[in-house]
Amino acid sequence: MDYTYQEILQQPGTWKKTLQYLREKENYFSQFLAESYDNVIFTGCGSSYNLSLAASHFWQAIKQVPAKGVPASETFLFPGGVFLPQNRYLLFGISRSGETTETVKALQHFQDKFKGITVGVSCEENSSLLKAANYEMLLSFAREESVVMTQSFSTMLLALLSLAFPSSNSIDSLSSLPEILEKHLPSGEKTIKDLASNLSFDKFIFLGNGPYHGIAWEGSLKLKEMSVTSTETFHFLEFRHGPKSVVDEKTLIIALTSQRAFSWEKEVIMEMIDLGATILHLGKTSLNSPQAVEIIFPEETLDDFSLPILYLPFLQLLGYYRARNKGLNPDSPRHLTKVVKI
Ligand code: F1P
User: Fold this and answer.
1) Mean pLDDT, residues 119-145 taken together
2) Which of 57, 228, 267, 333 lies 20 to 30 Å (CA to CA) from residue 28?
3) Are strands 88-94 and 67-71 parallel, antiparallel or unpaired?
4) What does pTM read for this prediction?
């Protein structure tokens, strides 16, 4: 198999290294976590923007401070919509390569124009982003050959989630994640591989609320990048307000349900099944529907912070196997390069 596949499957081990890294760096990170900020901004491009969306939700929900995920280009093209001159910010710049032009520029522009601290989050040592930042989160053990981001995404998100929790107990609540993933990967991969062999679907809709919305965007981007497939992404209830008009028997809805809003999300899913859709459901509780292909994670320790991360490898495998079934090479996705420099 190729390196994209290998890197998807090695995530349990990479996640263990991530949690170990957070333990080792606890004192270093406490230097900036102890300071006070009015707002927290997460920024990046492509997958790293999707990561920013998920991380900002986690951060605000856990730390009770205003947090926002924005595309790196917005921070310098429309700063008035992102920053307030009188406020003090904690700005996380997220970039696997640490060389994406917009993300490096976002950090430099912020440091020139606004007040606060910057943290570079990357897998590449000595990268331009890490050199520009006041602090660094260097996850070099999650470096990857794949053009599309796989383990680097889940690793950087897991690291930021762990950082958001009050030290010590954060790691405990997430420490079971690698083993849970390891347990579900074999059967989950088979489920995804079987579904991806069905090339009759021509519409792919990703649905996710709250912290799952950034994950829905990332699953949508993986399928698009690797298999050259048009995809759409919505919050569950938003899908009723017009976009559901496209649903028919050739529609696959990838539903990333939560614990908190499951009853609301299930209602939308059942309505779409009545319109003819097939469902790929990742969740904690089964829908008990013959129209739903499911990967269920019943473990008690899982919640709306850890589940979104756990869904990622299966969404990555969906993109991988559909690409393979279309005769495409996931290691060299059409038109794409590993880093976008302008
Ligand atoms: C960001 C990015 C990826 C995309 C592709 C090109 O990279 O846009 O999101 O999938 O690999 O680069 P980075 O800033 O995280 O290195």
Assistant:
1) 97
2) 57
3) unpaired
4) 0.97
